[in-house]
Protein 1
Amino acid sequence: MILSPEKNKNLLATILEFSYAEYGSALEMLTAAKKTSNPKLKVGYIRHALDEYRHTFLLHKILHNQIKNGIGKFENKYRFSPKNVIAKGYIDKSGFLVEKLKLKKFVEFVYSNEYLAKQSFEYLSKRISDTNSLNTINEIIKEEEGHADDSLTVMDDIMKDENIHHGMAKKFYLTKFSEAQLKIAFTREKFKNRLRTFYFKNLKFLGYIFDPILNFLISIFGKIVNLISVADDNDKNLMSDKNSNSVV
Amino acid sequence: MFYLGISAYYHDSSVSLLNSEGKIVDFKKEEWHSRVKGDKSFPRMALEEMINNFNLNEKNIKSVTFYERPVRAWITILKHSVKINPITNELTRNFFKNAFNSSMRFQMDLSKHFNSSKVEILYADHHLSHTLSTYYYYRDTPSLSLVIDGYGDKYCSSIHLIKSEKEIINIWNSEYPNSLGLFYSAITDYLGFEINEGEYKMMGLASYGEPIYFEKLSKTIKFENDKLEIDTSYYDFVRRVDRSYSDLLPALFNLPPRNSNEMLVVGSDDFKNYSNVAASAQKVLEDLLERIFTYAFNKTGINNFLLSGGVAMNSVAVKKISELPFIESLNVPPSPGDSGAAIGAALFGFIKDKDKKIDPNKLIDNKDLYPGKLVSDENFFDLVLDKITDDSNSIEETSKLISRNEIIATCYGNIETGPRALGHRSLICNAHNQDLIIKLSTEVKKRNLFRPTAPVVLEEFVNTYFNINNSIKNCYYHMSSVATPKEEFKNLIKGVIHIDNTSRVQICNNDQLLGKILTYLKNDKIYLIANTSFNISSDPMVYSKEDAYLAMVRMGIKYLLTEKGLYKIK
């Protein structure tokens, strides 16, 4: 594994981030599978989820390969923890996309993001030179491309299903995407991703602005908190003494 | 009328539902739905499913009880952190910044599901919720409830004297940061396992080591003058968010923290060294628990004990405590951790309801280990699985496959309440075949070899195979303690005996799924089944049929038993 030091700087963190993104995608697909009653679609979503789970696992393997090859040192912050998929925003606390978006928007999102993922993996592959890891990434790239195409097939299937169940043949054709619509969706998702990257890149800068304010608030609030005394429960009957509506 | 209890924002959030008789009719963890192990978010999806299944609304919900007092919990840690750390300390800052994501947003999150002005919202003390979650299953009074966990509200450990459901006296507490749970988690972290997840692994690892650091480690946390005290110079959970131990801890062992990236290979030097640390921490934990139990007994003279909190999941320690001479009975609930506290919270609401009309002589069935409704869809199975047989003889067919040394996955009816798989979400196989169990553990589950696999046995045979301690017999119905095998049968069940000569036995009756399978297996002279949870490492237990199929493919499992039949992968 040969990489220039500048490029290596955050490679482990980047691979880990990719794995969280894939994991988040797996969970989205699994939820989509649970939300549909169409057996064929269900299986399609589950297969997509299986691929994303496998990608997560492969990315961990790639990360370990980099460490084995001397690219950076393992630290606990590189340990994959499923809970971080929420903390890092790959899954929204307010709900999965399939719950929040209309079907059309959901498919648009999947389509655009699978292509963006493919592009990101291509970029990542330029930073990795050991053959095994590279082959793995190329395999993932191919599958991501497949997922993007699949999402359109899925849309067809969904609409066919709608057609069968609700006699909505016309609606199917009316709601099917045009190239222009997909381009707009793609640009929108790309812009959102850029904005996210910009935000994370500038967190340190934002810290310079907000940290002194936070310190000031803590110093004031710390003094107030120290004045608050939380009563002891010694020898109290916990079932009768207290106000059950109190948060303190 | 219904009574809801909710536990959330720390780890393993959950929701439980009691009916007008005070019986659990449903219990759900958010991680089952979100598929994020240990999910601490408000149990949005779990609650939604419950609302749909029971048509819950503002008119039929008598109360919603949260399992702690949010402001009290937030202030206690902040107060301590401000006191001992500089303003710029990352723990203080993190705590302050995340106030909006803490349990203080409970009412706001709840209001997305119910009009909170039309539903009574109650707050129960965190440790009281734990006590009530145990009391739900074990109603004998007077009894002493010991709650030992990481942290909740203001306290890390508590002793409650239960005189009746309306008289629960707090007789002792250990305040933050003097915590046995946080101590054990800090060592878990040092050993390279994830906190709130790796404690099981550490317990399994401990059996391989010698407690050579016991004396040294005992100096960092002790029970003296009726007080539990931790020396925080060794533990960074009071000052850092990224690490629970300080540099003094590796210096104490003269051993660097384990790199979680490296495999622990049984027999290697690293394995020996780190298992010695785990064994020492386990011994410190057991020693301190014994002291706290002894203190509780000496103070009250009561010998009927209940134990809950995260530490109660340490099944090895439960057995050790049960050997104390004064203990008549020691009961642990099926779900002793924070998720189970939702049951206690709901019970709090039920007890507090002055308008309820119940027949005091009517006993409720409080032993149901699989409460709840699960609407499941397995129509898609036709596309991916072959049905071997329908539900009429699926259990008999399953037993035949087990006797032919096949591994079977189960996704049968509703899921277990607690953290242990008790048959409804399990991977099972013949427990008399050691090689098969090794395959199940390492190849299928992809676990480390040092982690044990549990046996299941019919009640009629338990005393044949194991030395059962009657004071903890109830614990064996939901795998909350361990037992030693009978010497004469050890060779027959080697695969389910851990290195320390214990097994985390599950006793079952023949009206339970695994009991029915074992009843058939008797004909083939198979008396024990090996049982482990149906999930891949780092995932929650499977919940729905979609999860089950996905896990089958990921784990390479051929057979699946559901309530509708027995299937084989295509």
Protein 2
Amino acid sequence: MSTKDITLTVNGETHSLTVEPRMLLIHAIREELDLTGSHIGCDTGNCGACTVVKDGEAIKSCLTFAVQADGSEIETVEGMEDHPDADGGLHPIQEGFEQEHGLQCGYCTPGMIMAGKAILDENPNPTEEEIREGISGNLCRCTGYQNIVKSIQYASDKLDENGEVAAADGGRAETDGGFTCGVENCCGGTGFDHTGGDNE
Amino acid sequence: MKPAAFDYHRPETVQAVVELLESLDDAELLAGNQSLGIVMANRLATPDHLIDLSGVDSLSGITVTDAAVEIGAMTTHRTIERSDRLAEVLPMLPEAAEQIAGPAVRNKGTIGGSIGEADPAGNYPTALAALGGTLHLRSAEGERTVPVEDYFIAYMFTDLRENEIIEAVSIPREAYPVDRTGMAFVELKRAAQTWPTVSAAGAIRVDDPGESEPTIETARIAMANAADIPLRVPDAEAVLEGEPLSAAALDEVADIVTESVTPEGEMHADREYKAEVAGEYAKRSIRTAHERAIDAADD
């Protein structure tokens, strides 16, 4: 039986593994690394419960051999609370699922959250249609999807708000011209002109 | 573990790939793994060796020249879906790509994998059957080019030999000038994960899109999941060519397509229904392609 030595960086932590080539990425994540947040539903690419983010893209980790992921950066649901957007608590997407009742049995949720993250990473303000398209490879047999869509919309709004607060605090994130902070009296009397863009 | 054991190879050049194909017994090529992985999980395929093509950079990419579009076999659905250049010159391909499964599958799945699998329900096989073009195949003996119309032989059976790799597909642009061509890929599908019940690929070139009723110079129609291969329907194309589009011609297209297809019945759609809906979808693809051909003049 042949084996391969591979390196996976999962949620920022680098792991060296020796695996059989036939080991699926989902099995490496769950059984070798003991990160059982990502679920296995169908094992054949249908359900999306095993969705993780690999090098910035959502993938189905049951349709990837672990050897194919050698050298890559993987994000799973376990990493969401440590993400900077989580600010020490739940990530806004997780909070969205809590606030909007985006889960019932919870089996699809880790995959939905990672699919949601891939959607928002690429497009912070998706339309409802774009969200539905983005989770179209993920099956949920409980919710009817409506509240999952709302959960991701909640996260989109929350991340927007956080962005605005951060901008009002520091004002330096996006001040490369034409920026309006939107907060009343934010910079009264300082002479700082948000909209001018020529103060640098 | 669900798949049977195999040895894994990850060459970095096409030459190394074809040499492995010569030297290894019972080897399969691994592209995006979005279909082979399912087949192997079910142990319907138990190859002794997998040759992963993801390390061969020269197999990915889209090249557009005045004469042709060439797409490398390892180009993903996502890349094709999002190619602005393809949307401009051969919009059927991005439209076919964006309707494949969900985004996670499109991030990994490749055009070469789809052509190699040759499922007659597949989107690219059908788009290529409509558009025409050439497959570039390579073995240790050298390159071989095969016209699309000769490649698909029977259900998931093609002219690709055991020692060959698909390097690229090229589609000549001459028949599809952007300012007077329209294309449409429409499919009837229950959910992202399912195969389409039926799909239709239509392309129309008119003589002068500025006229109120331009004459159709060229029409192309191909159907997915409607026969044992992606099925081009030349008799239906002939009805349209040389005339302006008419309601009567569209109805005749639908009738000819319904007559021409030989679909397998499936759980949610029996043969009769699929034949009927194939005609309707052929009509829709042509109607939309025609609208787009006329709009092309304004772009």
